[in-house]
Amino acid sequence: MFSKVLVANRGEIAVRVLRALRELGVKGVAVYSEADRDALHVRLADEAVAIGPPAPAESYLDQKRILAAAEETGAEAVHPGYGFLSENATFAAACAKKGLVFIGPSPKAMRALGDKVRARRLAIKQGVKVAQGSEGALADAKEARDAAKDVGYPVMLKAAAGGGGMGMRVVHEAKDLEKAFASASEQAQKAFGNGAMFLEKYLQRPRHIEVQVLGDADGLVRHLFERECSIQRRHQKLIEEAPSPGLDDAQRREVADRAVTLAEAAGYTNAGTVEFLFQDDEFYFNEVNTRLQVEHPVTEAVTGVDLVAWQIRIAAGQALTLRQDDVALRGHAIECRLNAEDPVHQFRPTPGPVTRYEAPRGPGVRIDTALYAGWTVPSQYDNLVAKLITWAPDRDAALSRMRLALADLKLDGFTTNRRLHLRILDDEVFAAGDLSTRFLEERKILEGLEAEAAGRRREAALVAAALAMAPQGGLGSLAVRHTMPPRRQAP
Amino acid sequence: VKLDITIDDTPFSILLRRDGSTVRVEVDGEAFETKVEPAGGDRFTVRLGRARHDVEVPSDDHAVVDGRRVTLRVLAFDARDVGATAGGADGVVRPPMPGAIAAILVKEGQEVAKGTPMVVLEAMKMQNEITAPFSGVVRRLHVKKGDTVTLQDVVLEMDGPDA
């Protein structure tokens, strides 16, 4: 086992990885930008190294500075978390060159699977079904038009190097194809330095099903069943759960087997996720994420397996002693991603001070977060501020626990998408488990949320109007108390 | 009067102006014209449009609206009349959120129509446009590309019909 590991990330995932390191008796080194001087991951680490200005390109994405921090502290390995450098094969190779272990798959496997065109080819070769589409990358808009004609509209244009919904366009008619191709390709070129595009038949109402895999250096690959992540907004996952409420046991085994086949063929090591779209009882391979996923805790909750600990053990050369028969599903888990954003104001970002933070408690409740009262959520990074995970013996009970946990979480100072989550959880179609990636539109969730917010503003107006007139307990007494030094906050 | 309160843990930023029994309330930018009549003690009848509501405000930690109890917390209270400055109507434009200036789309002296994008602010990997609150002239830019701004900073000042 390593004696010291550097965590090349920030926020809740850095906190999560540092926790796993402590449990394994390994020292953890944090890196931080100027904007994260007071961040929780810095406080929880055994050592912390400043790596530069707030801009990600000059700190968390600066490979040289991170490698120098590892060298300076004597770390033997680097855990990249998710995002930032986690899927950067060049960085993984640079680590190896410096004698550092990159906690993740080999650069070769990352390249083979990270490029969606190559991953799609590999899937076809292995007999893993993909959505009907172009053979490989499309040379130009004309080739795209021919491929789309073969497949039939609507089609989905995808960037080979895409991620997070970037470089993706749904095209319903031939006349829109050329323009969509140009803009998606340009966006991908700008964001990923690779404008290569391919296209697939667009599925109208799929579920998003993904399989967690772990592989070791001896070529052994195990799966930890699936997660369903159909609740998304603009290709960003919002709620994830395990197991999927939409699969029977035969389908569950089938999709897991396909994921293992693909991971084995790619010589995959460490933790990874194979994504599929599921529609009309058929799985279509989507892509592979060659890293730890944000939503890994739901898998941990239903399998009892610590994925981050396994990532570290595998990277340290230990054999994957987990037998497939030992991985069993127990109960149901759900995760809500709390983001610093305002769903009733076009999802604008809401970075700001944390004036109050009290975590929800109770059996089957987990919160992964870097929040603490007195901290300020910085504006330079991702808006994910906390992941709330609940587990219970069955789905209904896990959903009730989630509703309670969301209500119990005391978080003041900035707006989050909490009400959006509550609205989804209260939806009868969601409760019935009839999910698809179109859920938010189909159920008019955002429209409902807007109406709810308008009602709340109206209620606030009524209260404020009465306060304005109240002789006692109203504005008269407030004027006295609140213009004096602030009184102590009630706990 | 400016009032920041939470009702059932939802924060609201409120501007109040009272004229006799008429109270004009602006909640997060939405205006409500109410008539408030005392109904004994801490109870009031608040008329909003055609609807009449019973509102009770016995303390500043809870209120009762049409029989429903809501928790109330007063976060900030400013007795000065700041109604006129809402939404940059005085020509001082501040950022709607902290962030970094990604682009400046106007020049000093430039005429802009209401709603014209003036500055692009980047926060949490998203680009947000700051638009002109009214039609007028950009008098002074206080920021340059790359600057980091907080809610208190001034992005630019405008001359216009109201300023």
What value does the Rg of chain B take, in angstroms? 20 Å
Q: Roughly what fraction of the amino acids of chain A lie in strands?
A: 15-25%
Number of helices of chain B: 0
Q: Kindly state the number of beta strands of chain B.
A: 16
In this structure, how is the largest beta sheet of chain B organized? 8 strands, antiparallel, barrel
Structural account:
The complex is a heterodimer of chains A (about 500) and B (about 160). Chain A is of the alpha+beta class. In chain A, about 35% of the residues lie in helices and about 25% in strands. Chain B has about 160 residues and is an all-beta fold. Chain B contains no helices and 16 strands. Chain B has strands spanning about 1-5, 10-20, 20-25, 30-40, 45-50, 50-55, 60-65, 70-80, 90-95, 100-105, 110, 115-125, 125-130, 135-140, 150, 155-160. Chain B has an 8-stranded antiparallel barrel with strand order 1-2-3-4-5-6-7-8. In chain B, strands 9-16-14-11 form a 4-stranded antiparallel beta sheet, with no helix packed on it. A 4-stranded antiparallel beta sheet of chain B has the order 13-12-10-15, with no helix packed on it. In chain B, a hairpin with a 2-residue loop joins strand 3 (about 20-25) and strand 4. Chain B is elongated, with a radius of gyration of 20 Å. Chains A and B meet through strand 16, helix 16 and helix 17 of A and strand 1, strand 2, strand 3, strand 4 and strand 5 of B.
